[in-house]
Design goal:
Number of helices: 12
Largest sheet: 8 strands, mixed
Structural class: alpha/beta
Low-confidence stretches: 247-254, 277-284
CATH architecture: 3-Layer(aba) Sandwich
Radius of gyration: 18 Å
Distance between the termini: 45 Å
CATH class: Alpha Beta
Order of helices and strands: EHEHHEEHHEHEHEHEHHHH
Mean pLDDT: 86
Length: about 280
Amino acid sequence: MVSIAIANGKGGVGKTSLSVSLAISLAEHGHKTLLVDADMGLANVDLVLGIKPAKTLLHVVRDSVPVSEAVVEGPEGIDVVCGGTGSKELASLGGEELKALVDAVLDAGSKHAYVVFDTSSGIGESATAFLRASKRVLVVTTPDPTSVMDAYATAKAVFEEKPGAEVALIVNMAESPSQASTVYGRVSSIVAQFLNKEIALAGIVPLDPEVGKALRSRQAFILTSPKCKASRAIDSLVEWLNREPSPVVDSPAVGILQRMRSIFAAFKKSEQDVEEAPAAKEAA
């Protein structure tokens, strides 16, 4: 079982939407996946998926309900554990209670190939508990300068908690691969300079209007628009995660070049599909 924490320094970077679509794509690639809404105070995976779970992590904490009883089936066969939106009880968890919850969730996910944690924004105690317990941490940023600095702060917090952590960056809402490459260069250089660590490029998700459309309809964009650029990028991310040996240890010089090549190829294929669709329709 591989545990993956999706993290971000500030809200509004599209972390939950990415977490949901990543879990679905993993399942579509044949991997049994558990998606956990690990935002202890402002959970919204249920809203993105349009589901109404009978039991959530709040019931696990408050009523000692086994995590397995809070699991509901999501799209494409993913298993989902939702959080308790606006729950002060969950938001105030700390210390041994929080550790026990993390351990219980990991135990429930032991029969899955992947467990994906959609963590809370920032570097609070609940977020770091799930980050520390995960094999891989994917930090989400946008090209916005404040988001870039928050991504560095998040990576710093992870390395301080777990010096040997496998941390990688996802650049979301990128207007172009070159813009995303610049963002990655800034983050990776700051991490190298001040932390003496390496951070890989996990993926680039382009700015795509299909993402917003899917959110408004309470669905995952990878389901509503599986051929859009954002969906292609998520599929590329899954391929990266499944690559052996671990892609997190790629050298920056070789790793970034390989990633950019694969991402350019995915973008080009997506554009070709969009261009060919009207012609195919007319021919039919």
